[in-house]
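Saturday, quiet lab. Running sequence design on the structure tokens for the scaffold JK sent over.
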């Protein structure tokens, strides 16, 4: 395939992703007319129409959609191969795009480890982002993602770091005032403190109960939920990094301990990105140090971080 065809493919990918020649030109630095010419030459070489063009909008044809999906994967492979070849004769260098859960776990466990990695390998730039929603590692172009929960079968490279425990907690004064809670249904009788999830799926062995939170206190973060619980305002659901130190020191009491949940934490990576030495190095770095940093946060608690 000649150079014009490769340039045409890249021009087509830019236009398809940005959904207009104008936006693609602004993003790529090429002129609108040049992109249009390259795409037209590509269509002529293929003998098919890839884009429907009107004065008001642009969309891909069915053939264009299929061609886009195949070319996108091929370009990812080619770009990764080029990075691998350049990396093979140098020290670790380049960029890693990583996504992680946020909150105390992300900020005090994951982030310090990533910063330590960047100190060790100053030519590697880790772009770390946090989100509560699960990102699409392929579509969003991440090299590495930290995920919680069961992983579906896939072609992704996965490495389990450890399990964390989610507990139901309240202040000793709250428990004394409202009495002990023997069953998840008892939660409906007391004030609850919750975040973005307004229904709690509680499991004990094969048994499952769902508690729909009505009223109560809605907080923006685990840190605020913890403070509300310490103030005696209700029962809340927190990960161990947010509450273990308080339980150990008697500031919070675990209620319904049989209904606590263990959730696996894993790193996942697309196979094509796993070929890069810098990505494998970061995975190994995190796997070797995650448990120690997690235990440190458990022992010290949020107030010390």
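Result came back. Writing it out in full:
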């Amino acid at each position: 395939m000649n150079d014009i065809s490769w340039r045409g493919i890249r021009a087509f990918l830019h236009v398809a992703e940005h959904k207009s020649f104008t936006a693609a030109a602004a993003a790529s630095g090429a002129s609108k007319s040049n992109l249009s010419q390259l795409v037209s030459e590509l269509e002529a070489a293929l003998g098919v129409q890839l884009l429907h063009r009107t004065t008001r909008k642009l969309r891909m044809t069915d053939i264009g959609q299929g061609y886009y999906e195949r070319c996108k994967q091929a370009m990812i492979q080619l770009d990764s191969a080029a990075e691998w070849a350049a990396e093979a004769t140098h020290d670790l260098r380049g960029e890693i795009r990583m996504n992680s859960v946020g909150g105390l776990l992300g900020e005090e466990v994951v982030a310090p480890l990533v910063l330590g990695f960047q100190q060790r390998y100053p030519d590697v730039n880790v772009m770390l982002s946090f989100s509560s929603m699960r990102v699409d590692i392929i579509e969003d172009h991440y090299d590495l993602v930290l995920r919680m929960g069961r992983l579906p079968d896939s072609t992704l490279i996965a490495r389990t770091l450890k399990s964390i425990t989610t507990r139901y907690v309240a202040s000793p004064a709250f428990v004394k005032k409202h009495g002990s809670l023997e069953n998840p249904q008892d939660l409906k009788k007391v004030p609850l403190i919750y975040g973005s999830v307004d229904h709690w799926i509680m499991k004990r062995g094969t048994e499952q109960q769902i508690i729909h939170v009505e009223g109560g206190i809605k907080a923006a973060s685990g840190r605020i939920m913890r403070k509300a619980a310490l103030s005696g305002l209700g029962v809340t659901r927190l990960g161990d990094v947010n509450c273990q130190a308080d339980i150990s020191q008697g500031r919070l009491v675990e209620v319904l301990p049989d209904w606590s949940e263990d959730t696996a934490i894993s790193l996942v990576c697309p196979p094509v990105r796993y070929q890069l030495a810098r990505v494998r190095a970061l995975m190994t770095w995190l796997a070797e140090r995650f448990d120690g940093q997690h235990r440190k946060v458990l022992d010290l608690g949020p107030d010390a971080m």
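Notes for JK: Residues 3-87 form a domain with the Arc Repressor Mutant, subunit A fold (CATH 1.10.10.10). The chain has a mean pLDDT of 87. Ask whether to fix the surface positions before the next round.
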